[in-house]
Design goal:
It is a single chain. The protein contains 3 helices and 5 strands, in the order βαββαβαβ. With about 80 residues, it is an alpha+beta fold. The radius of gyration is 11 Å and the shape is globular. The two termini are about 15 Å apart.
């Protein structure tokens, strides 16, 4: 399970990392070339955040939907 997000500023990155760190499960983020820990602010900036990113949480379906809901302002279809 994965969903796409678009982060438009450093504040968006910080806000997304804050959402991810509240989870007890791993939240990986990738640009399909590199994958980083979505709970790590510095690792997130190693990705080109001007492009859409894929969020790949390692969790149950229920936890996935809650994470996607909390990330709603960043999600793209």
């Amino acid at each position: 399970m994965e969903f796409r997000i678009q982060l438009r500023s450093a504040q968006d990155v910080q806000d997304f990392v804050s959402i991810a760190t509240r989870r007890a499960f791993p939240v990986m983020v990738s640009n399909h070339q590199h994958q980083v820990n979505g709970k790590n602010f510095m690792e997130m900036f190693s990705l080109d955040v001007s492009q859409p990113l894929w969020v790949c949480p390692e969790c149950s379906e229920e936890e996935y939907h809650l994470l996607k809901w909390d990330s709603g302002r960043f999600t793209i279809d």
